[in-house]
Amino acid sequence: MTRAIRIHAQGGPEALRFEAVEVGAPGPGEVRLRHTAIGLNFIDVYHRSGLYPPPQPLPFVPGSEGVGIVEAVGEGIADIKVGDRVGYAGPTGAYSEERIITAERLVPVPDGIDDAIAASVLLKGLTARYLLRQTYVVTPQTVLLFHAAAGGVGSIACQWAAALGATVIGTAGSAQKAARAHTLGCDHVINYREEDFVQRVTDITDGAKCDVVYDSVGKDTFIGSLDCLKPRGMLVSFGNSSGAVPPFEMNLLQRKGSLYATRPTLGHYVAKRSELLDAAADLFEMILSGKVRIDAPERFPLADAAKAQTALETRRTQGSVVLIPHH
């Protein structure tokens, strides 16, 4: 018998229950994975609270990122064997000591990157990669605004964008987080609690504004983000930590400068195994080269997932958080 966090009804942190579960043997194309570290992400909170519908029928095991050791391999798998150290980002069910998972969603974790780092970085790092390399292709000529620059995705993306030679403007919600954003490669940092970020972006760019704005905040920043874009600029909305973006008239994009707006998600960028392996290899190379530095994540025992989610929701975390199973 193994244990997992399960949600029987969506709600507050008390909805997270640590209980015994049956895992069983892997079927064709599947492996049984023993987790060594599990990533914590805002989407886990959305799945728990009800902002997003349950990813699976209730009761379900939340979490969409983990690293572990392959314990058993089903039929028809050529490139993964028992004992391999692998990670994944995407399939829910991560808040567990062990799980069954489709082998084609697993990526090898290279030597030189430890389990907690890998578990803290896969979802956020693969997200940063598609945002900067695919949704909008960032070059040395790009001027960009990244909200929550000191947050999970932001702390990776700002370093990566700086390595690509872009002009990086970040926002942060405190003096401490603003100072951190500077160390992450932001050329300019705006404390949005003390400054009007639209006015500051206008000043910083001498009125030219940005080619692209990356916004995971949502409701509170949506209109301001549009106002930071130059004509034909792109708003990339990839989260809603302040609540969902309200409905808006499409004509708004025309009035504000023939703007583009997109709402991407990782799954559509790594749908094929070849895309996933390429993206993960690119991410790990950025880390191993030192161009993207990953701080050691904050750790909570898996049994304390409710405390960990509460810390995330109340902005008491800085950088990443992982859950550690005690086998």
Automatic annotation (TrEMBL):
One GO location term (cellular component): cytosol
Keyword terms, alphabetized: NADP, Oxidoreductase
Keyword Nucleus appears in the UniProt entry: no
InterPro entries, per the entry: ADH-like_C, ADH-like_N, ER, GroES-like_sf, NAD(P)-bd_dom_sf, QOR-like
Keyword set includes Transmembrane helix: no
Transmembrane segments: none
Any GO molecular function: quinone reductase (NADPH) activity
SUPFAM superfamilies, sorted: GroES-like, NAD(P)-binding Rossmann-fold domains
Chain ranges of the Enoyl reductase (ER) domain: 11-323
Domain of life: Bacteria
Protein name: NADPH2:quinone reductase
Organism expressing this protein natively: Kaistia soli DSM 19436
Lineage: Bacteria, Pseudomonadati, Pseudomonadota, Alphaproteobacteria, Hyphomicrobiales
